[in-house]
Amino acid sequence: MIKGFIFDLDGVIVDTAKYHYLAWKELANSINIDFTETENEQLKGVSRAESLQRILNWGNVELSETKFNRMMSDKNKIYIDYINKMDETDILPDVPRVLNFLKTHKQLIALGSASKNAKYILKKLDLFDEFHVIIDGASVTNPKPNPEVFLTAAEKLHVSPIDCFVFEDAEAGIEAANAAHMKTIGIGDPKILSKANKIFSDFTQIPNVYLKNLIYK
Ligand code: B16
Ligand code: MG
Question: Rounded distance, CA 114 to CA 145, Å?
Answer without folding.
Answer: 10
